[in-house]
Amino acid sequence: MTTADRDVVQVVYDRLFHRFGPQHWWPAETPFEVVVGAILTQNTAWRNVAKCIEVLRRERLLNLDALSAVPASALAEWIRSSGYYNQKALRLKNFCEHIQSRWMGNLDDFLSQDMESLRAELLSLRGVGPETADSIVLYAAHQPSFVVDAYTHRIFSRHGWIPEQIAYDDLREYFMDRLTPDVKLFQEYHALLVRTGHLHCRRKADCGTCPLHGVSDRH
Ligand code: SF4
């Protein structure tokens, strides 16, 4: 890895932080709420998830025991606005059942295991892919696993820093090899990339006012 390689990752972070400041992401009151949000946000925008979270909060379902006790069919109705709601209800129920049976209902113990074991166990659950698993590891367990998403890929590939075709784990490794494993840094970095994607690096790039404009000779 060249110094320039490592530098680019730092330069991107510095530019984004300078423009946008701290993002205060993930917006959740408890680790369990992070887990619920991470599953609900699969294939949908956060604004749809936020509506569901409010419904679940109103129904006093944002805790493991309460969510474990409701039938999947009722849960599906409460989370309808997140899309794929039947599937997501089953995923949430499956997560709750796993913690109840394997961890005697102790979410803190589950989240406190070492990072690689936690990530592997999350990935073994039905419907939990790498982005969901890393979001839970980073924002609920507060352990330094870098989260990559479609925006991360788009921003870095458009500038030519990573290949167009790159696997999730290779892209995650790209960041983890170049950054010190710092939870706050990883949390902030991911949130800043999401912000950049929302505001500028959409399908049609809006480079003119983007803080990353000119950071490479491609954009
Ligand atoms: S909008 Fe343009 S300058 Fe901004 S990250 Fe995307 S490609 Fe780079």
Description of the molecule:
- By secondary structure, the chain is an all-alpha fold.
- It folds into 2 domains: 3-24 and 146-199; 31-140, Hypothetical protein, domain 2 (Endonuclease III, domain 1, Orthogonal Bundle).
- Helix content is 62%, strand content 0%.
- It contains 12 helices and no strands.
- It has helices at 3-20, 31-40, 46-58, 64-69, 72-78, 85-102, 107-112, 115-123, 130-140, 150-158, 168-178, 183-199.
- The longest helix has 18 residues, at 3-20.
- The radius of gyration is 18 Å and the shape is globular.
- The mean pLDDT is 96.
- Iron/sulfur cluster (SF4) binds next to helix 10.
Features of the shown structure:
219 residues; mainly alpha; Endonuclease III, domain 1; 2 domains; binds iron/sulfur cluster
At the first level of CATH, the class of the largest domain is Mainly Alpha
First CA to last CA: what distance?
23 Å
- Given the structure, what is the number of helices? 12
- Tally of discrete structural domains: 2
Supply the CATH superfamily name of the largest domain. Answer: Hypothetical protein, domain 2
The number of E-state strands comes to 0
CATH topology of the largest domain: Endonuclease III, domain 1
| CATH architectural category of the largest domain | Orthogonal Bundle
What characteristic shape results from the CA principal axes?
globular
